[in-house]
Structures are given as structure tokens and as C-alpha cells.
């Protein structure tokens, strides 16, 4: 039976999920990490909670894929390579070129590589992953699914920064956003759950994970999103600062004796957010636990986090002239009822947004708004891999 592999390749790791095309059932998932280093972990989950694990040296992505595919046959997950009808690859930056997912030929892969400036840590390794799969599975269609594509519908007023226009014209300095595949999935799923055509809905999607972003989805299209030129902008995240006054950059560098701007950007990307404020952890569970034990900085981190999400929700209601549904997703959005309740609190009454405390006590897909809430609120587990597989099937014309 025909299968598609959804791939998320990093510089030293390769995550995969295999779906059966017709049923959309997930048949296996797993990862190879520490590629190029010693002692790579190969983990393959399959069947009814079964797991294969081994530690071996894996030189490069091509070797990782060979090991993986051989093991998939060994474990009877696939009978032969013929069963794989195509691969779909998550790609972070699609710039203004990729307005939808795309079937990638050599030209397309080169375009992915050329966009590396916009995502230095991601696009290069992702292209490397694509090339490796093409070597091991020659002739199988390859589809790129871009984190930015969903946001290419943003109007100019939302994506332009108010800096000299020539920076946009010459260098592509604009808002691109990210997490588009997740926002697209949960917005469409919310419309399905409401039994309405997404074209008629205004939805605010809150992807709250270690990285986080909020998107205004009007009529099924992203019209604004909180991440910017890079994922550094927007709400408070695990380790990212989110929005700050750009003048802080030179001020802190001067006061702290930081001479290299890259070090400052690294602080904003990796040492800020929940981690920087709380001094405890970037992990929401740890921050919630520390706050519950009376740690004041952890409490402050939580309050800043809630505040930023609320501000984006408020501004996106203004952007769209209303809202029909708010969706929470990703690690925090799916698993922390306390976070959802702190965001959809009494201040949201004025908008007619009201949670049902009992319904909110869940980690499953659910509508969690009060019966008389004007705006529906949902928690929807995101499924970026399923979107990757669906796009691969659609663009590669995979029929069975
Ligand atoms: P993600 O990047 O989507 O995997 O999300 C990771 C974030 O989800 C981390 O901050 C975790 O602490 C958070 N998370 C996962 N489970 C829970 C939970 N039960 N309660 C609060 N936060 C959680």
C-alpha cells in the first residue's frame, strides 16, 4: 500500500513520519539524531506502541536514510522501497517565491538553498535532506512544504516594516512569519468542527509551543502573524524575546560590554523569553511549577507571556473587524489549561469570549468555550506532518 514520508531534516538530525496514503493512518515515526557525530540514536516507533532503538555511527543524511529504510523493511513496516510514493519536506523559509507547497526539481532545491539567508540554520540542512532522499529513492516525487507559504497572503500593510522602502525592495526585509503549516491545519480544522465554510470565518490561531506565534486568519487566509522577518518577533517564547524596542539592542550591548551583534541576537534568541525572565527554565511546565512555589520571577514570566498573547488577540480582532473562533495549539496551547484560562480571562468578557472551566480541563481536541460565548474557543492538537503528507499527495498526484 502506498505510503508517503513527511520529513523534518536538521543539520544533525532527521525526523520522519510515514503515512498510509488512502487511510491517512500514521504507520511509523521516529528520528535519527547526532548525524555526523558519534553514537547516533535511531528511533523507530510503529505498530501498537512498539519501538525500535539502536545506537550507531551515522556519517551523513544519506546513510541515515539508508539505515532507516532498511530497518523499516526489517520491522515489516514496509515490504519494499516501491511502497514509498513520495516524500514531503518541511522547509522553514520560502520567501516570496513559494506561495504554496511545491513539487521540487533541481531548480526548486537550488531556490530553497538560495533562501538560506532568511533561515541560516534551516534551509541548508533541509535541502541536504531532500538531496539525500533523492539519492536513496531516485525518481520519487519530492514536495517542499514551507512554514512561510500560508502567510504569503498577508497584505502589504501587514508585511511591510516602517523602515526605508528600499530595504524591502533591495533586500527582502519584510515580515514572513512562520508556523504556517500549523496555523493552516488548526484553522481549517476549527472550521470543520464548527461545520462552516472557512471562507466565512475570522479565526485567531495561537500556536504556543517552545516557539510561538499568533495568526489572524480571515476567510481561510493569513492576514497577519506575530513572527516577523525571522521567528524572533512576536510573543514571549521559551527562549526568544519576541517583540522588543530595537534600541534596546545597542543599549544592552553598550552596558554589558557585548561587542558582537551576533552575540546579542543569540541572547535574544536563546537566553530570553520564559528562560530569561524566570531564570528557571524555558519549559512552561517548569516555569508554572516554580511560580506555584512562590518564585516571583517565574510568576512575572507567566504574566508577561499571557499579556503578550492577549495583546495579539486584541489587535487581531481589530485587524479583522471581529473574530468567530480562537484556537490554541502546540505544546503549551494543547496541554496547559491554566495558560488558556489565564489568556481567556475576565478581560475577554467584553469581546464576548468566555471559557467553560470544565470543558477547558482537557488535552484533547475540544471546543472549550462557554455555551453562551459569542466566540468559539478550541484546543486542537496541531498536525503539521499530516498537512505535509496531504500536500505531497496533492502536488505529486499520488492516487493510491
Ligand atoms: P512544543 O514546542 O510544541 O513541543 O511545545 C513545548 C512547550 O510545551 C514547552 O514549553 C512545554 O513545557 C510545554 N508543555 C508540554 N506539556 C505541557 C503541560 N502539560 N503543561 C504546560 N506546558 C506544557
Automatic annotation (TrEMBL):
This entry carries the following GO cellular component terms, namely: cytoplasm
- Site Transition state stabilizer — annotated at 179, 240
Q: Which residues form the active site?
A: 147 (proton donor/acceptor)
Q: Any note on cofactor binding?
A: Mg(2+). Can also accept Mn(2+).
Instruction: Identify the CDD domains for this entry.
Output: ASKHA_NBD_AcK_PK
Superkingdom classification of source: Bacteria
Where along the chain is Mg(2+) bound? 8, 384
GO BP terms: namely: acetate metabolic process; acetyl-CoA biosynthetic process
Instruction: Provide the residue positions that the database annotates as binding substrate.
Output: 90
Keyword hit for Transport: no
Name the cofactor(s) required for activity, per the record. Mg(2+); Mn(2+)
Q: Does the keyword Nucleotide-binding apply?
A: yes
Pathway the protein contributes to: Metabolic intermediate biosynthesis; acetyl-CoA biosynthesis; acetyl-CoA from acetate: step 1/2
Instruction: List keywords of the entry alphabetically.
Output: ATP-binding, Cytoplasm, Kinase, Magnesium, Metal-binding, Nucleotide-binding, Transferase
Q: Which reaction does it catalyse?
A: acetate + ATP = acetyl phosphate + ADP
Its Enzyme Commission number(s) read: 2.7.2.1
Q: Which family does it belong to?
A: Belongs to the acetokinase family.
Q: How does it assemble?
A: Homodimer.
**NCBIfam families assigned:** ackA
Could you tell me which HAMAP family the record lists for this protein? Answer: Acetate_kinase
* Protein name as catalogued: Acetate kinase
- Please name the source species: Aerococcus kribbianus
Amino acid at each position: 500500500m502506498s505510503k508517503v514520508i513527511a520529513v523534518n531534516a536538521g543539520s544533525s538530525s532527521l525526523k520522519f513520519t510515514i503515512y498510509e496514503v488512502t487511510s491517512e493512518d500514521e504507520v511509523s515515526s521516529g528520528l535519527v539524531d547526532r548525524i555526523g557525530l558519534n553514537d547516533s540514536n535511531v528511533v523507530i516507533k510503529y505498530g501498537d506502541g512498539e519501538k525500535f532503538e539502536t545506537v550507531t555511527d551515522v556519517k551523513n543524511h544519506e546513510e541515515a536514510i539508508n539505515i532507516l529504510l532498511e530497518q523499516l523493511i526489517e520491522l515489516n513496516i514496509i515490504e519494499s522501497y516501491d511502497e514509498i510514493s513520495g516524500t514531503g519536506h518541511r522547509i522553514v523559509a520560502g520567501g516570496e517565491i513559494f506561495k504554496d507547497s511545491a513539487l521540487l526539481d533541481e531548480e526548486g532545491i537550488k531556490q530553497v538553498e538560495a533562501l538560506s539567508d532568511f533561515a541560516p540554520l534551516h534551509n541548508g540542512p533541509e535541502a541536504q535532506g531532500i538531496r539525500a532522499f533523492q539519492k536513496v529513492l531516485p525518481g520519487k516525487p519530492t514536495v517542499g512544504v514551507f512554514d512561510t507559504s500560508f502567510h504569503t497572503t498577508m497584505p502589504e500593510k501587514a508585511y511591510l516594516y516602517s523602515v526605508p522602502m528600499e530595504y524591502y525592495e533591495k533586500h527582502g526585509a519584510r515580515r514572513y512569519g512562520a508556523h504556517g503549516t500549523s496555523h493552516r491545519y488548526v484553522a481549517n480544522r476549527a472550521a470543520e468542527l464548527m461545520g462552516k465554510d472557512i471562507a466565512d470565518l475570522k479565526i485567531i490561531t495561537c500556536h504556543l509551543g517552545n516557539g510561538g506565534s499568533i495568526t489572524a486568519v480571515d476567510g481561510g487566509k493569513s492576514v497577519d502573524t506575530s513572527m516577523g522577518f525571522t521567528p524572533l518577533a512576536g510573543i514571549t517564547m521559551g527562549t526568544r524575546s519576541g517583540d522588543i524596542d530595537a534600541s534596546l539592542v545597542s543599549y544592552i550591548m553598550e552596558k554589558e560590554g557585548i561587542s558582537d551583534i551576533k552575540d546579542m541576537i543569540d541572547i535574544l534568541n536563546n537566553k530570553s523569553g520564559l528562560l530569561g525572565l524566570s531564570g528557571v527554565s524555558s519549559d512552561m511546565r517548569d516555569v508554572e511549577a516554580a511560580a506555584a512555589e512562590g518564585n516571583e520571577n517565574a510568576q512575572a514570566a507567566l504574566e508577561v507571556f499571557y499579556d503578550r498573547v492577549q495583546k495579539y488577540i486584541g489587535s487581531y480582532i481589530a485587524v479583522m473587524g471581529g473574530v468567530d473562533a480562537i484556537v490554541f495549539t502546540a505544546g503549551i496551547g494543547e496541554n496547559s489549561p491554566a495558560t488558556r484560562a489565564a489568556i481567556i480571562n475576565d478581560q475577554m468578557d467584553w469581546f464576548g469570549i468566555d471559557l467553560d472551566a470544565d470543558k477547558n480541563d482537557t488535552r484533547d481536541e475540544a471546543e472549550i468555550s462557554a455555551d453562551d460565548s459569542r466566540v468559539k474557543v478550541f484546543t486542537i492538537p496541531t498536525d503539521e506532518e499530516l498537512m505535509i503528507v496531504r500536500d505531497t499527495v496533492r502536488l505529486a498526484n499520488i492516487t493510491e
